Amino acid sequence: MKARTAPSPSTLHQRAYRERMRSAGLVKKDVWILPEYTAELAAIEKSMRAPGRASSRSSQGDAVLTLVGIHEALSQTRAVIEGLIAVEWLEGADPSLHLVMHEYGGLSVFIAKSGEHLIVEAWLWPLDAVADAARFNAHVLTTHKLLPLSTVGIDVVAGVPGYIMFGTLDANSRFETLMFEVETLADNVINASEAWLEYLRPEFLAGAAA
Questions:
Q1: Three-state SS at 85
Q2: Contact in structure between 161 and 127 (CB atoms under 8 Å)
Q3: What is the pLDDT tens value at each position of the chain, 210 positions in all?
């Protein structure tokens, strides 16, 4: 008999996610749409998870999303009220919002505004955590298209150069679309972190696990 293997962290995450949806009284429905409507459908799905909620189009209209408005809207979401997401306002020359995604192991996601665009970003790891940067970069460049709505880049955070994952969207987007971007980024960070473990230095992994 073939030995059974333990389910991967991503599999366990998906199981837990489905259980949370069922516990909330939600049902899964499959639909067929043109690919260009994927983000719009996802935003509609999110808005329909809250019973008795008014149409997002009628409530928001064509208003431009601002960090203040996003902060206020987040405070009214079920995820924040139930403690699944914690929100912190970060002051500075370029203010931003810090979201702690407790459903994703406390993953930190940052939302900032640059001109007419919103940037949703998460830190991956320092540059020196990668054993072979050239090999890793080549792998990322050839596979990043498999990460929906997210891109991998290099930035300096708190004086430390490192890899980040981010997504951008127009500030005229709906709030539900922004939240879809946030959740998609969180999923991508978790999945990519698992897939790219082999490229990281053992000492970095040991320190992260400690």
A1: strand
A2: yes
A3: 444 444 545 455 556 666 666 676 777 667 777 766 676 676 677 666 655 544 444 444 457 899 999 999 999 999 999 999 999 999 988 899 999 999 999 999 999 999 899 999 999 999 999 999 999 999 998 887 778 789 999 999 889 999 999 999 999 999 999 999 999 999 999 999 899 999 999 999 887 766
Note the pTM of the prediction, 2 decimals.
Answer: 0.70
Rg, the chain, Cα only: 18
What topology is assigned to 64-209 in CATH? Yope Regulator; Chain: A, (3.30.1460)
Which are the contacts of 32, defined by CB distance < 8 A and separation ≥ 6? none
Closest CA relative to residue 204, chosen from 137, 127, 135: 127
CA–CA separation, 80 and 105 (whole Å):
15
